[in-house]
Amino acid sequence: MDLRAILMGLAFALMWSSAFTSARIIVTNAPPLAVSSLRFLISGIVTLIIVRILGQSFRLTPQQWRLTIVFGICQNALYLGLNFVAMQTIEASVAAIIASSLPLWVALASWLLWGETIRPLGIIGLIGGFAGVALIMGTRLNAGVDPYGILLCGVAVLALTFATLAVRGASSGGNMLTVVGYQMLIGAVALAVPAQFETWDFNWSPILVAAIGYTIFVPGVIATIVWFWLVNRIGTVRSATFHFLNPFFGVAIAALLLGETLGTLDLVGVAIITVSILAVQIAKTRALT
């Protein structure tokens, strides 16, 4: 892995993790589902414009279409939509910690459902990672954090786990930017329906506009492009190794920009999750060698 790939991987992890802080700003000032639908509509259009500029095809195979629809509903509508709703009552750092457990859930599901081999280091990582999440969530629940918000984030990460496994088939036919553009538009349509039942109260301010714009173009578009560049350069498994930074970056950005506080057990839990995700990804990398 060369220096450029490392820098791009760090940039991707930073952009991905920062989305929770910008989302927290948005949902405390605007209806979460309506804004999410608008976000995906704009992101989808921008992504497809990039597809056209690059001269790539808009055509997908029937299998890609089926999986793109599943991914658009599970990732955009369920995962991101539920996280946006949840962050009305829970802090960005809590949502980021739960979401950062995705590599653990994917590894566990791949092992149990797909029969993938997992090395002892990976098993240790799974046990440690889930223990770290349980430690933080137990501490937060005792401190009075909204359990319904945590439940929504839990359902969200399971939906994304399913989508992550499903997208394996969609990526086999190429045109991944086209897949991403279409799944964003599908998410926009799926969220537009429940958004009609929200109270459309917007507290417009420069900060809200900046947060919406940032969420659309940085985590939504730029991070996606960086991710595919990274996958093409070093492969999916090695690229996914950078996810181990998400717990740290997620809570650090929320603390820095939103003033969210972290207790000693929170820091211990984040450290455990970070090391555990790295262990799982290292085990996957070694399994390929």
Largest sheet: number of strands, sense, barrel closure: none
Number of strands: 0
Structural class: mainly alpha
What fraction of the residues are assigned to beta strands by DSSP? under 5%
Compressed to H and E, one letter per element, the order equals HHHHHHHHHHHH
Task: Describe the protein in words.
It is a single chain. This protein has 289 residues and is mostly helical. Helices cover 80% and strands 0% of the residues. It has helices spanning 3-27, 32-53, 62-86, 92-99, 102-113, 120-142, 147-171, 176-195, 206-234, 236-240, 246-258, 264-287. Helix 3 (62-86) packs across helix 8, helix 4 (92-99) packs antiparallel against helix 11 and helix 5 crosses helix 6. The chain is globular, with a radius of gyration of 18 Å. It starts with a helix and ends with a helix. The mean pLDDT is 88.
What is the topology?
Elements: H1 3-27, H2 32-53, H3 62-86, H4 92-99, H5 102-113, H6 120-142, H7 147-171, H8 176-195, H9 206-234, H10 236-240, H11 246-258, H12 264-287
Helix pairs in contact: 1-4, 1-9, 1-11, 2-3, 2-8, 2-9, 3-7, 3-8, 4-7, 4-11, 5-6, 5-7, 6-12, 11-12
